[in-house]
Every structure is written in C-alpha cells, then in structure tokens.
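>> received
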Amino acid sequence: MSVTVFAFRSTQEHGEQMTSSVWVILGPGEMPPAPGGLPLLAEARRLVEPAGGVTVVLTGPAAAVEELAAQGATRILVLDAADGGVDPIAAAEVLTERLRDERPETCLLSASRWGSEVAGRLAARLGAALLPGCVGLTRDGAGRLEGVRPVYGSRLVARVAATGGSLPIVTLRPGSESAGGVSGRQPATLERIPCPARPDWIRVLGEEQVPPEALDLGEADVVVAGGLGVGSRQGFALVEELAGLLGGAMGATRMAVDAGWAPFSRQIGLTGRIISPRVYVACGISGSPHHMDGVRQAELVVAINTDRHAPIFTYADVGILGDVREVLPALIATLRRLRPEARDAAALLGGGTGRPGPLDARS
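>> returned
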C-alpha cells in the first residue's frame, strides 16, 4: 500500500507548546455509558503518557465524571446550556478562548456531523490546522504528531501533520478499539462553563419529528441497508421492516438516496455516515469502495445480491445469492415466528465466524 505525506500549514503560528496536554471534546450521545467517546479518550491517554493531562469537554450532564476519570480524564469541563442542548456554533465560540489560552498539544473530536462542524469552526477561529477523518495518530522521528487517514476511497493512506507549531485539531472516525480503564488515577477536577443558546442570526424554519424506531445510524447495533437492487421506494419498506424486527436502523447507498428511495440522513459511505455496527445487512448493494468505506468497522457483514460476482461478497461474512424482493419476505416471516428476545442478529445470521461463499437462496 502506498503512503502519501502531507503537511498542513495554518494561517496563524502558535509557537512553542506551553503544556503537555490533550483535549477531547465529546458531542451529544458520546458521553459514557455510550461508547462513542471511549476511543477518543483512549487515544488521548496514549498521547499524553506517562505524565500529561487529558481535558474532557462534555456537552451534556456531568453524570459520567467518575467513568471519565477511570478512563484517564484529569479535568472535565461541562458546557452548561440553558435549553440542555449545546449548539455547535455556540460550543466553538465558548471554547475558542480557552484553547487559545491553554494551547494543548492537540484537540480530538469524533468525525460525527456535530464533531466535524465544531472542529472546522475551531480551526477557522484559531487559525489552526484541521486534520479530518483520521483513523489513528502517530509521531514522527522528531516527536511531531501525525494523523493517519485513508484517501482516494481507502486506496492510499496519508500521514498528515500541522506545521510551524500550529495546534492540530483532529477528527477521528468511529469504530476504533478502545482501551480499558486506568488504575491509580486521581479524581478528575470539574468545571462548569456557561454556554449560550444558538446565535440569534440563525433561525429555525421548522422541525421534523423522527419516529422512535428510526435509530441513529451511528448508535445502532444492527443496520439493514438497501441499494439499487431493492428496486423501488416500496422495496425499501421491506428493508425498514427487517431493520425493525432486528431492533436496528435502516440505511441506504448514495445511489438509492439519489433515486429518492431513502433520505440523505440514511446514506452510508464516504459522503454519508461512517458507522461501526455489530451487524450490517446489505440488501441489493453491489459493494463499491465508496460505500464499503462507511462500514469497514462492522463486526459481521451479511450480503444479499443476485450477482455471484458482486464485490460485496468479498467483504461479506455471510452471503445470500438471491433477489432481495424474495429473500427479505422469507427472512421477515421467519423472524416474526420468533420471540422478540430470540431475534439476535449475530446469532441468527452466522455469528461472524469464517467467510463462507455465497449461499444460493433459490436452492
């Protein structure tokens, strides 16, 4: 695999680092007990070992202080918003001066929609270097921090770094393995920071109520996604029904979204969501690199397709050769006969052991 090296120069020089610390900013839904922020904490802890400090910024209730301290946080900053929700624009405004004053070695956020927006705004306000979509962090021979990120549909890996002593603001893709807790840690200090509401120059034109069963793709253990092979918007009703029976979320490829069969919020891939579910069921999806980069961290991939040579079968742990319009009704009928507590997708769909060849649903 080829390796490309880039260096990003910020518009403002920060000079020599004043502290040996790393900041972690956790967005909505990333605070423990949710696992979304744990890989960020594990990465921050690794970077500051043995004696540095980890500052964690929370955008929700401070109920997770003990858990965060057990994961290596030495200081916790809680953004207190009057309405309970922290707007990304307001968060960036509040944190800019603190970051400028303290000048940590780096600042880590999740590559979620919220984290990516905050990271971009912080980088612009601070004149800092933005290292987006990284899958890990390393150091070069001089100890300088470098981000590792896939490029060109994961055909290449790039090492990216800030130059001139500028602050690197890094977004990390989900799905990284998180380390366990840290023994012998002191209790973390806690500070609350008032956070204003959404700026008055932003107007809310309307709100759309999301049904309870429409789980967030990044939080779902099971995702059932459809592609052009589903055939129509009506065919996506089967995808949604299967996802509901498995207690999961419905997803879609870019082509299916472009066809109007699913909303953009359900799109998976490089231009959509990057997810790491326990089980991913691909219905009528060919398996383009653009799409598969979005599910590379899935534990178990199940593919249903009529084309025995479709690229999706090279990624799949379980392959079903057949028309989704015939296979899905059969799966749904079988699941309906099971008790809800018996509908464990990983157990029902192969358990993730080995990579068998495609199964012919017509035989």
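>> DSSP finds ten helices and 17 strands in the chain.
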